[in-house]
Write a structure and sequence with these properties.
Elements lengths: L2 H26 L3 H21 L3 H26 L15 H24 L10 H7 L4 H13 L1 H21 L10 H11 L1
Helix pairs in contact: 1-2, 2-3, 3-7
């Protein structure tokens, strides 16, 4: 068995474990948000399988459309319907999550800044500049390359801004649909207490 074959087996079985683990998580987990994250793991495993079969465009569509847009839509529905349990903000289920969130926020800002700096070089757009060269060289992936250059080159700033907008929308949905504990000072309970006092 060559090293390449062994590596292919490792990638295949690792992706299969991801797919099965995420699928079991979707069924077995009780929290709907955790179920959606299990679905993300399954979709990423399928994308890895697509990459192993050299179907790179399908892998990109799998990640962008399904693991991105579709799961975000699921999370919108889950949050708008409301989670069964009320969340006590004074209890930290994972103590390290706030520092990790701060590190991730700094990393996201850094990546966004790098994308903006990189996009400044690609502000001059030449429509159709790659069509003739790709056709002349007989490149079968010309359309995919043009789509990638257009999406992640010419319009990378708009693409990144859309992703930030989706993240803000998800965070806003979580805050708007949060079920507050009965004894906490939620805005609704404060207004009800004031009206009852009067």
């Amino acid at each position: 068995m060559t090293d390449t074959t062994f590596l292919e087996y490792v990638v295949f079985f690792s992706a299969a474990v991801m797919i099965l683990g995420g699928a079991i998580g979707v069924i077995a987990l009780k929290n709907p948000v955790h179920c959606a994250l299990g679905l993300v793991l399954t979709l990423f495993g399928v994308a890895v399988q697509f990459v192993a079969m050299e179907a790179h465009f399908l892998a990109a569509v799998q990640v962008i459309v399904y693991a991105g847009a579709i799961v975000v839509l699921f999370l919108f529905v889950i949050m708008l319907l409301g989670v069964d349990e009320s969340i006590d903000l004074s209890i930290e289920p994972i103590p390290i999550q706030r520092p990790l969130a701060a590190v991730m926020a700094v990393g996201l800002v850094g990546l966004l800044g790098a994308a903006i700096v990189r996009a400044q070089d690609a502000l001059v757009i030449n429509p159709g500049s790659g069509i003739d060269t790709a056709t002349a060289t007989g490149n079968n992936d010309a359309n995919i390359q043009q789509l990638a250059a257009n999406l992640y080159g010419d319009h990378v700033f708009a693409f990144q801004l859309t992703s930030v907008l989706l993240i803000v929308a998800v965070a806003g949905t979580v805050l708007l649909t949060r079920k507050w504990p009965r004894d906490a000072g939620s805005p609704d309970s404060v207004s009800k207490n004031q009206s009852s006092d009067s």
